[in-house]
Amino acid sequence: MAADGSPTRDSTARQGQAERRGETRLRSIAKAVSWRLVGSLDTLVLSYLFTGNVLIAGSIASTETVTKTVLYYLHERGWALVSLGRA
């Protein structure tokens, strides 16, 4: 992205390449949401197995959903600063 927040020609080209490979933004969002649901369901089931209490398991799973969403965002922003593997 340019300093003003607009996409650069290079980022627009990469997006076009991704879409030609079948990865539209909508598909990427759908995949991210479905993966988050799978992860949260896993946490819910494991928390229930460990605690035997559905309320505690639900609290753990809902907290995990929020914290991991924030952590993922920060992780992605951090990687945006790393040049490793970029052409």
What would you note in describing this structure?
Helix content is 76%, strand content 0%. The protein is mostly helical. The protein has a domain at 24-80. The protein is elongated. The model has no long low-confidence stretch (mean pLDDT 86).
Biggest sheet character: none
Q: What is the approximate shape?
A: elongated
Q: What is the number of E strands?
A: 0
Uncertain runs are: none
The chain-level mean pLDDT equals 86
Q: Give the N-terminus to C-terminus distance in angstroms.
A: 16 Å
Structural class: mainly alpha
Order of helices and strands: HHH
Task: Please give the oligomerization state of what you see.
Answer: single chain
Question: What's the layout of helices and strands?
Answer:
Elements: H1 9-20, H2 25-51, H3 54-80
Helix pairs in contact: 2-3
Outline:
The chain is an all-alpha fold. Helices cover 76% and strands 0% of the residues.
Please tag this protein with its features:
elongated; mainly alpha; 87 residues; 3 helices
